[in-house]
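Query structure, 460 tokens:
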């Protein structure tokens, strides 16, 4: 059996280049890669299908084929659109071409099932499904309607935001993908009801539809585990930055919606936290932001606050660029009675959270979204990401040694029993066994890449 993972804006490569250093290269790349590897180990022929790029600034993505060492997972890069790198918002006009070229390729290769990822991957896979009469699944990861809500998009300002984010194309693509897929994969029941239950999808899906499959993502437990390894390099790096104090660690993409600033402010409100802990913010590609000016609004906001509140000696940054070093950081931090905080305004799931838990690092997580399904009593703490006092209180609780140890041990158990990539791959394969193709129609705008009907009124 051959299964493909369609992700046109992912740009996967054997060395995980640019991982988390660009908005397009976030958690979905880890997700797709790990599920694909786990599925291949179960005897399935697996391809990850993405876009080929010929751009001197992005040389990692220029070959037509690639793969991951020690596996038979194949990365297939399809030429479509301009040759240079394009952000995901610019790919919509070329997805029809992508689908047609995928169809030409797999008519020769043979194909049994299509898994699709994000709205652009969803509609590309839906077109491929029609071409080849093969069923497909849809995994949204995040949906455009929630992004519109966060940006306060309404009928009055819609035209402006539509020009930037292509919401008309995205919402329609997501709707078609969820309506005609054989099954829709969600990480949590909350994602099913809160995200897919948005009013913009009511014409496409019933949130009680049986084709929703709750399949949580997993952790790469080859890397993220509590086992002591040679962490000396990271241990020395941490010591050179923050000394020997216990740490409060923030590690997620430097994006405003990840809400780093609320953790910094909550820390600043607590004299006892400031006395006992240093705050360590993980970056990817940013070295010493105090002495280098970076065009990143999250870093700028944090540094401005830190300087104004005389916290420079207590708030630090560390550049971590790969998963092995990140796991080492968590293990070093665990040995120093540190903990991890993630206060995203909304977190669809929370892969970073379970990675920290897998290493035994206690977690204080946002109560908005997936973490409420991940973290049960005694496995971590939850807080309102917009309530600084609540964040502060929950962080202070982890100064209790007995509670700290209980959460550390229970967090490891929770991940090992519920969140492995093998169980994720198994969930997909069980649903694939029952999938059948049923014909459907796709609006011509996706084939031509033009004249997407606007959600509200007409584009100016």
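Result returned for the query:
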């Amino acid at each position: 059996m051959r299964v493909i993972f369609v992700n046109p804006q992912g740009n996967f490569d054997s060395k995980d280049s640019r991982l988390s250093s660009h908005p397009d290269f976030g958690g979905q790349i880890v997700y797709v890669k790990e599920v694909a590897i786990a599925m291949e180990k179960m005897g399935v022929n697996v391809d990850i299908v993405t876009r080929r790029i010929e751009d001197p600034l992005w040389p990692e993505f220029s070959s037509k084929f690639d793969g991951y060492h020690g596996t038979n997972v194949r990365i297939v890069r399809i030429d479509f659109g301009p040759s240079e790198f394009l952000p995901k918002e610019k790919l919509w006009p070329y997805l029809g071409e992508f689908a047609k070229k995928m169809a030409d390729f797999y008519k020769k290769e043979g194909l049994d099932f299509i898994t699709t990822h994000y709205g652009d991957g969803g509609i590309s896979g839906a077109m491929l499904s029609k071409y080849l009469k093969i069923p497909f699944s849809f995994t949204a990861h995040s949906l455009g309607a929630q992004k519109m809500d966060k940006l306060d998009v309404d009928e009055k300002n819609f035209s402006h935001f539509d020009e930037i984010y292509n919401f008309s194309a995205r919402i329609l693509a997501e709707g078609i993908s969820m309506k005609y897929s054989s099954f829709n994969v969600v990480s949590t029941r909350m994602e099913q009801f809160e995200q897919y239950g948005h009013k913009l999808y009511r014409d496409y899906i019933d949130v009680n539809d049986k084709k929703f499959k709750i399949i949580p993502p997993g952790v790469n437990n080859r890397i993220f585990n509590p086992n002591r390894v040679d962490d000396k390099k990271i241990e020395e790096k941490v010591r050179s930055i923050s000394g020997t104090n216990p740490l409060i660690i923030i590690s997620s993409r430097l994006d405003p919606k990840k809400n780093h600033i609320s953790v910094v402010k909550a820390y600043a409100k607590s004299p006892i936290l400031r006395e006992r802990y240093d705050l360590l913010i993980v970056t990817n590609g940013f070295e010493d932001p105090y002495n280098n000016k970076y065009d990143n609004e999250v870093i700028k906001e944090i540094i401005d606050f830190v300087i104004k509140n005389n916290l420079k000696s207590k708030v630090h940054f560390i550049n971590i660029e790969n998963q092995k070093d990140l796991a080492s950081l968590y293990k070093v931090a665990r040995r120093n009675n540190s903990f991890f905080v993630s206060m995203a305004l909304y977190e669809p799931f929370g892969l970073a959270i379970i990675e920290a838990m897998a290493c035994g690092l206690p977690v204080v997580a946002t109560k908005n979204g997936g973490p409420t399904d991940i973290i049960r009593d005694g496995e971590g703490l939850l807080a309102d990401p917009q309530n600084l006092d609540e964040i502060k209180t929950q962080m202070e609780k982890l100064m209790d040694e007995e509670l700290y140890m209980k959460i550390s041990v229970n967090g490891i158990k929770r991940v090992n029993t519920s969140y492995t990539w093998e169980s994720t791959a198994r969930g997909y394969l069980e649903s694939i066994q029952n999938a059948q193709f049923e014909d459907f129609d796709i609006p011509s705008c996706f084939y031509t890449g033009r004249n997407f009907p606007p959600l509200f009124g007409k584009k100016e």
